[in-house]
Amino acid sequence: MGEAQRVEMESPEMAESNASAKIGIVEKVGYASGDLACNLIYATVSTYLLFFYTDVFGISAAAAGTMFLVVRIFDAINDPIIGSLVDRTNTRYGRFRPYLLYSAVPFAILAILCFTTPDFNEWGKLVYAYITYTLLTVVYTFINVPYGALTSAITRDNDEVVSLTSVRMIFANIGD
Length: 176
Description:
Blueprint: H1 3-9, H2 12-18, H3 25-56, H4 61-88, H5 97-114, H6 122-154, H7 158-175
């Protein structure tokens, strides 16, 4: 069981004593690998989806661009709401783990659906793109917000937080 899992499942007293323990490089790389995987999908979507929607799926550039704007605005409203929900979560599995476990498969499925071309008319294609892309961003938030907050549950040692975050950001940038 990794440090993050131990800290998240233990009592506050036990977590406090373990929160200052050194984190091994294997655990840091394991933690950072999650960001690598998430950013591989996110970078693909960010880089290629507009081209895909306009040149492959057949949505007009204006409609696709408007959709990206609308979904980004929705995402700006949605992110703090999901953050509040995560903050209030308290399960026997911890605060963050349920979101990471139960959002991973829908995230992968939605990423595939975003690049799927069902045979719809122009209006149907646009509705399909709105639904799949909006759901993808919502599920991404359900993964990314708790994942980012997990660092504070792993350790309270400032040097370890810096080290863990540095490894995570290196892996995140590799995924971009």
